[in-house]
Every structure is written in structure tokens, then in C-alpha cells.
Amino acid sequence: MNGTNSPRPAASGWRKSSHSGDEGACVEMALLPEAVTVRDSKDPAGSVLVFSPAAWTAFTGAPPRG
């Protein structure tokens, strides 16, 4: 899932990350039946990253690097 046919959730479907601060550097995500989408909250009309459910689970379940 990518390119011009990327899924776009309805405006009410976006949720801000609980790790986002008050400085405006926020990431928002929306769950769709077939994908997890991520965008920059400062640019809601901009690019959307699309992850398969398996890729999202692998990403969010990975131990922190550092």
C-alpha cells in the first residue's frame, strides 16, 4: 500500500501520540482495517506513511535502541 492510492482515514480517525509534547512536534496515527497510517500533525494534508498491521506490530514491539 503506497503511492496515490494510499488509504486516508477520516479526519476524526486520527489520534495524537501519547509521547508527543506541547511543542508542536506531534505524530498522529489512525487505524484502518487493512493498515496503520502515520502523519505529521503540523501537515495534515501532507504525506502519510502506511504500515501493514504486521509491520506496525514489529515496529512498536521492538525494544528501544540506544
Describe the overall structure.
- The longest helix has 9 residues, at 53-61.
- A hairpin with a 4-residue loop joins strand 2 and strand 3 (36-40).
- The model has no long low-confidence stretch (mean pLDDT 78).
- This protein has a domain at 25-61.
- The protein has a four-stranded antiparallel β-sheet with strand order 1-2-3-4.
- The chain has one helix and four strands, in the order ββββα.
- It is an alpha+beta fold.
- Pfam families: DUF397.
- Residues 1-22 are annotated as: Disordered.
- It comes from Micromonospora viridifaciens.
- This is DUF397 domain-containing protein.
- Residues 13-61 form the DUF397 domain.
Topology at a glance:
Elements: E1 15-16, E2 27-31, E3 36-40, E4 49-51, H1 53-61
Antiparallel strand pairs: 1-2, 2-3, 3-4
